[in-house]
Design brief:
The structure is a single chain. Helices cover about 0% and strands about 35% of the residues. It has about 210 residues and is mostly beta strands. It folds into two domains: about 5-165, Hexapeptide repeat proteins (UDP N-Acetylglucosamine Acyltransferase, domain 1, 3 Solenoid), CATH 2.160.10; about 170-214, no CATH class. A hairpin with a 6-residue loop joins strand 24 (about 180-185) and strand 25. The two termini are about 35 Å apart.
Length: about 210
Amino acid sequence: MSIRIHPTAIIEDGVTIGERTSVWDNAHIRHGACIGSDCIVGGKSLIAYDVEIGNRVKINSAAYICNGVTIEDGVMISAGVLFTNDRFPRAATNDLSELRSSAPDEHTLLTLVREGATIGAGAIIGCDLQIGRFAMVGMGAVVTRSVPDFHLVIGNPARSIGCVCRCGEPLLRWDEAPRDETLAVRCASCGWEYEIANRGVMERTATEADTVPA
């Protein structure tokens, strides 16, 4: 296998790494994590134990991916992205006499990043939520609730301002689209076509889309 691991990276026992994946300087991948093929794990990133990552995923420098996170194929995690998995964390027990365990428990909440999504640099992702297919989270956003497929969210707390194409180009801003109409929208960059109604974004069928010229 053509896996590339920088000599300063820390790979714990029980980690699975797919073919042609690169792990760069000072990255740390904890036990039980599973990373697919053709991925990039940027320098100084930390992937916690039992995290599942699909194929062709890019994780840029200094990202923190905690336990309870699953990342599907083709996702972009930009530099400095931070995931969380506990809404009400405490360091110690109620009487402060004992340090709480960091192991997963009933307070650990899951996060799913669906295929093709992009999370911008410095974003903070809450827990018990889902980032939809090909959604885009703007840089520095604080995501506190699930993001629908193809939506573009920005700000703190993150709010949806429009939708984007599979290729990443903007399709439509919600302040320009009437809610009570169904719109046929074609990406000006790649030609992919969508049907948008009440802020729901639906692609054409794969057969139809295959006929759209790039």
